[in-house]
Design a protein that fits this description.
206 residues; mainly alpha; two-stranded antiparallel ribbon; 5 helices; elongated; DUF5683 domain-containing protein; signal; DUF5683
Length: 206
């Protein structure tokens, strides 16, 4: 009797374990699917598009750190000599006006403090004329400094815009093509058939 009871309890435990194991194996855990990251306007952006959109910022940052570096990043090597040529030209203008300003400033000081040191070549020029020339050179020198700052900003903007239009087609294949085509004949009725026509097909490549 006890043996049968133990056998019954063992069978019940065994069936319970089998049932629990089958439930565990049948239940497959659901993996959470990663939701794609959406832009604020709801457009999904892949890595390639994000890299293209980051190009203008990178180009502008590099041009800000070193003039011409953004143009090199955009593979516009031919612009680098123009950038540095512009800075060299502005620097030469600044240097020339700075030297002339010092010369006429010294002449104006000599005429007020020690006329014996004044330049005899400018003996026929009045003191007001010397001061006026000095001020003109000083004004041109200051404008050259502003021109240098403006040119520095322009080369940054150029690198940004050049990288911004990287995704657009700016090749020489922007043209209008005319292709002759023939139109099939059509019959309005059995008495008056219409002959085939010849026309042109316009294709605009952008």
């Amino acid at each position: 009797m006890i043996r049968k009871l133990l056998s019954l309890i063992f069978c019940v435990c065994l069936l319970t374990q089998i049932n629990a194991y089958s439930q565990n194996t049948d239940t497959i855990p659901q993996r959470k699917q990663a939701k794609p990251e959406l832009a604020p306007n709801g457009v999904v952006k892949d890595s390639a598009r994000l890299a293209i959109e980051a190009m203008p910022r990178i180009a502008a940052r590099r041009s800000a750190m070193l003039p011409g570096l953004g143009q090199i990043y955009n593979k516009r090597w031919w612009k680098v000599p123009l950038v540095y040529g512009g800075f060299v030209g502005i620097g030469l203008v600044y240097e020339f006006n700075q030297q002339q300003y010092k010369i006429f400033l010294r002449e104006a000081q000599y005429r007020q403090e020690d006329p014996s040191k004044a330049n005899p070549a400018w003996k026929g020029v009045t003191d007001e004329g010397i001061i006026r020339v000095k001020d003109n050179y000083r004004r041109t020198r200051d404008l050259s400094i502003l021109a240098g700052v403006a040119f520095y900003a322009v080369q940054i903007i150029d690198a940004y815009i050049d990288a911004k239009f990287y995704r657009f087609d700016v090749s020489n294949d922007l043209s209008i093509r005319l292709t002759p085509v023939t139109q099939p004949s059509s019959i309005y009725n059995a008495v008056t058939p219409v002959s085939p026509g010849v026309g042109f097909k316009v294709r605009l490549s952008l």
